[in-house]
């Protein structure tokens, strides 16, 4: 036992050697409320076992991420559209030399760690090769072995959290392994069952498409929404001119796959030129297609997304299919996606330990459309691991936005509740299923401010495409306020106007968090979308349809900007809420998004948490984005 004499770090013992570390008190750096669901405490860890400790140091300048982003995304900024290079981003957020020095000299001087056992990564992460008993003395912690009931996997962790000296603590994000359990299986207790943590919204009723639904031209769009309906609704009649220079991707998770035969069947009817046109498969974490898939549950999402995006953009645009695998079921698919797109994300020790498959080796697209959601709020929001997971994912989305990528996500199909089980939060903070009265549950990634969240609208029965759309009634469109991300200033004026004028009586802070990031930002038609699935024309939809529709329009705007020698639009939210864009949307004023024993939020004039700023008027949006540098 090398450090058996070094008993408690709780006292401020500092051994001054070469570079004396400032005397400082130890503070509890992280702890967790309970053993994660599905795991149990098994035994004390073997003191001689080898446990390499990894320190993730605080990133530099993360507090400036919003300012950096606004500098290139605020339409008033002289630097609008001047996106950063990946190198600039990696450089800017790398931990500072001061952080590396502080932690390093503390380990050597106070921790008594042999210099040879410390490795500093080029990204500023620090690895220390020690035994359990050494780790215990360094961190003032006790290590235990935890066992998972499902698969008997074992994992080592500190039961009662861990401590760091105050002057070190402020340079460290986290130390691993300690209180973090990489896999988030425990989210499933909210009732997602075998579907896992992430799911496609899937709330729209499905039916066989009849002759009315299949009508040619923008007619009967209340009965079936075809490409012609969407073009007419959103004034979208644009022919791509820079398709070979532009990129767009749609993300699909796990067993959600498409059949080429369904794309061909759809295009044979609606756009014969595209029969045989395929998306380009980008396999992430082992994701693959399955030509023998027949289950409509597994075919509905991807098939719909690609029929819409390829249908709207036309034959000349290659569309990437980010197929995120199910081979690595334990991992969060958004982590897999972000790691595949950005090598600096996977060098993070907390990410590295997850054993993600790909790392910065997949092509990036200018627009990324995501029709899946999860909710941090039903995954033990007081657990530091939960907060860190969504914060680091959202920050990473922000860093990719800084490089000119637009992330578009569906806002969910269950109103103010979450997921297929319609979870809401009881007073004691636990998720209760079945729309029970309680606190509203926001969706992720829609609630990340760097994502453009899209709600769903429909053409009221008997109305035409020239009448105003309403928030969907076939299913409640997702929307609300984040509990994790504060409200960005660029949306505060519109949101406050809504809160002041349109909020139903009795909606207080026990029901939703008025200071949080409000979503959706925009909306687009989500019902009843005509889709060819497993050889049959059906109608379905959801915010799952709304997101790729809106994303396609952004891709078309990028096409025009690229052709004019400008950059892609990147993060568009500050522009969308700005004065310049005030009349670029079709305001949607009717409808609600019920859930949690309430009518949810009512749509209203201006921005609302059901349909956002409204549906796009493509020509107006295009003209405004073309007017920007
Ligand atoms: C779309 O644009 C083409 C070419 O500019 C034009 O011929 C056609 O009439 C337009 N279609 C609609 C529905 O406006
Ligand atoms: C493909 O789909 C079929 C039918 O659902 C299923 O039995 C098979 O396991 C799937 N194959 C793969 C590799 O996922
Ligand atoms: C929390 O409250 C819900 C609803 O009142 C109840 O069903 C559940 O058992 C409670 N859970 C705990 C841990 O107290
Ligand atoms: C409300 O949102 C703010 C800003 O994101 C957050 O700091 C706060 O913790 C949230 N409150 C609750 C009760 O979740
Ligand atoms: C919206 O609501 C108003 C007032 O209730 C009603 O007059 C109007 O017809 C509705 N519009 C649509 C498109 O449903």
Automatic annotation (TrEMBL):
**What residues form the catalytic site here?**
301, 305, 544
GO cellular component annotations of the record: extracellular region
User: Where does the record say this protein resides?
Assistant: Secreted, Extracellular space
First-tier enzyme category under EC = hydrolase
Task: Name the PROSITE patterns for this protein.
Answer: SEDOLISIN
Listed binding positions for Ca(2+) are 587-588, 606, 608
Q: Which reaction does it catalyse?
A: Release of an N-terminal tripeptide from a polypeptide
* Cofactors (names): Ca(2+)
Location (main, coarse): secreted
Q: How is the cofactor bound?
A: Binds 1 Ca(2+) ion per subunit.
A GO BP entry: proteolysis
GO MF: metal ion binding; serine-type endopeptidase activity; tripeptidyl-peptidase activity
Residue span, Peptidase S53 domain: 224-628
Documented EC number(s): 3.4.14.10
Point out the signal peptide segment.
Answer: 1-18
Which keywords does this Swiss-Prot/TrEMBL entry list?
A: Calcium, Hydrolase, Metal-binding, Protease, Serine protease, Signal, Zymogen
State the protein's purpose.
Secreted tripeptidyl-peptidase which degrades proteins at acidic pHs and is involved in virulence.
Spell out the protein name for this chain. tripeptidyl-peptidase II
């Amino acid at each position: 036992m090398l450090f058996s004499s070094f008993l408690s770090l709780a006292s401020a013992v500092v051994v001054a050697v070469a570079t004396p570390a400032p005397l400082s008190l130890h503070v509890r750096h992280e702890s967790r409320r309970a053993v994660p669901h599905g795991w149990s405490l098994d035994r004390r860890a073997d003191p001689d076992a080898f446990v390499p400790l990894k320190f993730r140091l605080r990133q530099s300048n993360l507090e400036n991420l919003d300012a950096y982003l606004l500098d290139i995304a605020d339409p008033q900024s002289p630097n609008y559209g001047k996106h950063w290079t990946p190198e600039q981003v990696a450089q800017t957020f790398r931990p500072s030399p001061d952080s590396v020095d502080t932690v390093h000299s503390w380990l050597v001087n106070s921790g008594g760690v042999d210099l040879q056992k410390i490795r500093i990564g080029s990204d500023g992460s620090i690895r220390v090769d020690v035994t359990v008993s050494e780790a215990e003395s360094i961190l003032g912690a006790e290590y235990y072995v935890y066992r998972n009931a499902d698969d008997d996997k074992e994992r080592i962790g500190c039961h009662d959290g861990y401590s760091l000296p105050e002057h070190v603590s402020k340079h460290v994000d986290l130390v691993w392994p300690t209180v973090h359990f990489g896999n988030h299986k425990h989210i499933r207790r909210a009732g997602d069952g075998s579907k896992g943590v992430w799911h496609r919204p899937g709330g729209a009723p499905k039916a066989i498409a009849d002759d009315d639904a299949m009508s040619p031209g923008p007619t009967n769009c209340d009965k079936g929404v075809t490409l012609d309906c969407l073009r007419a609704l959103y004034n979208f009649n644009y022919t791509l001119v820079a398709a070979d220079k532009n990129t767009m991707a749609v993300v699909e998770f796990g067993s959600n796959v498409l059949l080429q035969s369904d794309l061909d069947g759809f295009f044979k009817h609606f756009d014969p030129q595209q029969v045989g046109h395929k998306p380009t498969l980008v396999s992430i974490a082992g994701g693959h297609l399955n030509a023998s898939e027949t289950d409509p549950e597994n075919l509905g999402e991807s098939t719909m997304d690609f029929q819409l995006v390829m249908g709207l953009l036309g034959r000349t645009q290659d569309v990437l299919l980010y197929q995120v695998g199910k081979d690595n079921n334990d991992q969060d698919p958004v982590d897999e996606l972000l790691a595949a797109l950005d090598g600096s994300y996977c060098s993070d020790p907390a990410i590295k330990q997850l054993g993600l498959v790909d790392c910065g080796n997949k092509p990036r697209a200018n627009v990324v459309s995501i029709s899946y959601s999860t909710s941090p709020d039903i995954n033990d929001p007081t657990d530091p691991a939960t907060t860190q997971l969504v914060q680091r994912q959202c920050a990473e989305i922000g860093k990719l936005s800084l490089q000119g990528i637009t992330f578009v996500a569906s806002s969910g199909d269950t109103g103010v509740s979450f997921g297929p089980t319609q979870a809401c939060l009881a007073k004691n903070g636990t998720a209760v299923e079945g729309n029970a009265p309680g606190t509203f549950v926001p969706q992720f990634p829609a609630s990340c401010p760097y994502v453009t969240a899209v709600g769903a609208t429909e053409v009221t029965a008997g109305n035409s495409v020239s009448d105003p759309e309403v928030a969907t009634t076939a299913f409640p469109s997702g929307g609300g306020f984040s509990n994790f991300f504060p409200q960005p200033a660029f949306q505060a004026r519109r949101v406050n106007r809504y809160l002041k004028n349109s909020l139903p009586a009795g909606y207080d802070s026990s029901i939703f968090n008025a200071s949080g990031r409000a979503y959706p930002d925009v909306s687009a038609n989500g019902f009843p979308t005509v889709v060819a699935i497993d050889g049959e024309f059906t109608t379905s939809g959801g915010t799952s349809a709304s997101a790729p529709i809106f994303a396609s329009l952004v891709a078309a705007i990028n096409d025009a900007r690229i052709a004019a020698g400008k950059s892609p639009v990147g993060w568009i939210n500050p522009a969308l809420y700005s004065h310049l864009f005030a009349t670029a949307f079709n305001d949607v004023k009717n409808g609600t998004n019920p859930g949690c024993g309430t009518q949810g939020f009512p749509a209203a004039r201006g921005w609302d948490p059901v349909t956002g700023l409204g549906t796009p008027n493509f020509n107006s949006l295009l003209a405004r984005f073309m007017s920007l540098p």
